[in-house]
Specification:
alpha/beta; 2-enoyl-CoA Hydratase, Chain A, domain 1; 6-stranded mixed sheet; 4-stranded mixed sheet; 17% strand; globular
């Protein structure tokens, strides 16, 4: 299965399970994550991680975009992500992202929607879309990132298409801890989950919902999504990525 879920002694463990593809996310994986977020099956806290040490999740599987033909496909895709990440934010129990290796694109979106993020020393975070596909983030995603690291850092990260290493992510507040290796990361994630699961659940729920409500009033963004996903550049970026070559941007 591409996404695994098990509950051990009250803690739910979600594993993005496509290590051969650096855990790149399929639409089915997104939907299963949404289902677990809505109904965590009695778990008192969730830990989300990627299978293996190479990646938490290296974005959405590019193959999911091959059938995109119009800007409306991009609108539907971003709406799907907003729904899934919104469900994750609204999850009734604390959610911890345990990040090892690449955490990019949709993977970084998932991590940002979690309540707490911890990382192994080799983790890398970012949205290199200005260098790869030429698409854009929804305003909900931008607002979530800006709330975590500030609009200036979001701008710099996306404009330069660079990835933040674990220590920089710690310095800017994207993660709260950096662990020396994958084993230490997973051990700490479980210990942290058990710690927060033992605290007053209504206090935790009120806090996470209050923070979510601070970002609730978001302006429309469909014109921006159409501009990117309906462009020649998006098609060029996708074909260049799949062909392992540099894209030739035209700005249209």
């Amino acid at each position: 299965m591409d996404l695994l879920f098990e509950i051990r002694d009250g803690i739910g463990f979600v594993t993005l399970n496509r290590p051969e593809a650096r855990n790149a996310l399929t639409f089915g994986m997104y939907e299963r994550l949404s289902e677990i977020s809505v109904d965590p099956g009695g778990a008192r806290a969730l830990v989300i991680s990627g299978a293996g040490e190479r990646a938490f999740a290296a974005g959405t599987d590019i193959g999911q975009f091959r059938d995109f033909r119009t800007a409306e496909d991009g609108i539907a895709y971003e709406a799907r992500l907003d729904r899934v990440l919104g469900a994750l934010e609204r999850c009734a129990v604390p959610v911890i992202a345990a990040v090892s290796g690449a955490c990019t694109g949709g993977g970084a979106g998932i991590a940002a929607a979690c309540d707490l993020r911890i990382a192994a020393v080799g983790a890398r975070f970012g949205f290199p879309i200005a260098r790869t596909l030429g698409n854009c983030l929804s305003i909900a995603n931008v607002a979530r990132l800006a709330a975590l690291i500030g609009p200036g850092r979001v701008t710099e990260m996306i404009f330069t298409a660079r990835l933040l290493g674990a220590e920089e992510a710690l310095a800017v507040g994207l993660v709260t801890e950096v662990l020396p290796d994958f084993a230490a990361l997973m051990a700490r994630a479980e210990a942290l989950a058990r710690l927060v699961a033992g605290n007053a659940p209504l206090t935790l729920r009120a806090t996470k919902e209050g923070l979510r409500r601070l970002r609730e009033a978001l302006p429309a963004d469909e014109d921006l999504v159409r501009m990117c996903y309906g462009s020649e550049d998006f098609r060029e970026g996708m074909e260049a990525f799949l062909g392992k070559r540099a894209p030739v941007w035209k700005g249209r």
